[in-house]
Specification:
The chain is mainly α. Helices cover about 90% and strands about 0% of the residues. The chain contains 4 helices and no strands. This is MYO5B protein.
Length: about 150
């Protein structure tokens, strides 16, 4: 059974490793494709006149900034949605606090009587323990040995 367990764990690790290697290969392939596209664009840019190179560079920068702007807008929408959710939760909690405070104000006398009864009960419980021993922690082994003998 132990060897089967180890073998199963080894197979799981091997499968995870193979999946990870495959994912990394795919990532490398995607990066190679992107690099080839950039090289082609660069070579085409070099063949252009200086004015066309500037124009192409500006178009590339506009495209990059547009994509970045879209990403930021998406993030802003997500944050605004989260803010609305948190504000709703805050309103709910504030309402609960107000309700709790209102209930506290309604029955303070009853609560005080209940607290006095609780204190009395605690005092009685403490009296039940008068026969217990008091000792230092370092004396515990000696105490146990004496109790056994």
């Amino acid at each position: 059974p132990f060897l089967r367990l180890l073998e199963a764990q080894l197979q799981d690790q091997r499968r995870e490793h193979e999946e990870e290697v495959e994912a990394l290969k795919n990532q490398v392939d995607a990066m190679k494709e992107e690099m080839e596209k950039q090289q082609q664009a660069f070579l085409q840019t070099l063949q252009l006149s200086p004015e066309a190179q500037v124009e192409f560079g500006l178009q590339q920068e506009i495209t990059r900034l547009t994509n970045e702007n879209l990403d930021l807008k998406e993030l802003l929408e997500k944050l605004e949605k989260n803010e609305k959710k948190l504000k709703k939760q805050l309103k709910i909690y504030m309402k609960k606090i107000q309700d709790f405070e209102a209930s506290q104000a309604v029955v303070p006398a009853e609560r005080r009587r209940h607290e006095r009864n609780m204190q009395v009960a605690v005092q009685r419980k403490e009296k039940d323990f008068q026969g217990m021993l008091e000792y230092y922690k370092e004396d515990e082994p000696l105490l146990i040995r004496n109790l056994i003998t």
